[in-house]
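INPUT
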Amino acid sequence: MAEHGHVNRKSYLIVFGVLAVLTILEILVALPSMGVPQGPKVVALIAMALSKASLVGLFFMHLKYEMRALKLTVALPFLFPALYAVILIGEAGWRLIR
Amino acid sequence: MLRSERFSRTSEETEIHMTATATADPGGHSVAHALPPDEYFGSATPGKIGMWIFLLSDAFSFGGLLLAYGILRGGADVWRHPGEPALGIPFTAFLTFWLICSSVTMVLAVAAATEGNRKQTILFLGLTALGGIGFLTGQFHEYFGLTPGHGLTHEGLIFGHSAYASTFYVTTSFHGAHVLTGTIYILVTLARTVAGKTNANDIEVLGLFWHFVDLIWILVFTFIYLL
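OUTPUT
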């Protein structure tokens, strides 16, 4: 194996801590006994899940330290599925309530 | 075989490429980091960029499944029919935490490999493989029960009986197949590391796959279990 100097592990442990705390918060928000209304619950859970996924991608997968071309190659294509999700799931829900 | 031979492009590029990576270490394998930095992709190796592109396509497969789930659920009058069990949040939350821990051991394996510390790389790869095996055992328990009479299949969640059941099994088993693949990938890389046949780049590319499996589970856990 090639030697490339010391790697600072501090950011990994901080990210681990944040992921653990967010997981606990998710469970608290999701448990029916906590009585969080459906609207805020959905928004909070999706926001926390996307934050956790981003932390894994940026720090554990080192995307934060890659060059711009690789970041854009990986991130930009997700705009399309996100758009499809909003349109198609919204449409399904709209047909239900109209 | 030299890495440069496996990733050869045009003959001219290959010549430059091979010149850059011709130095093999005493173990007989190439040192991938000897590649000259690219204008756009820096020192990212072809193997790493290839893994990223694969993961992107894999993410779209999961995206398709989650989209189908969202459309079916968003348009359903009744999602969970009477007699069908709710999904167990506490147990799956534990599995989620377990998988996050295995991502940490993987990132520590990559760090050790980058530092050229083979002993630590082997230790953390071994722990990560145990993480994968533990998760698969947990998922088996959730589906079929490690003790008789337990498990969702015994409690009335039957594939093909409802969109709730089918989307659950298709999405989580597709993820489970990734955990199984990842665990085998780790064990093979672990054996190759013990034999001195890997370099830091090999461990980093393996790490990308494993973190992706964790990343997808974070989303599956929220959309399928928590919402």
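end of record. The radius of gyration of chain B is 21 Å.
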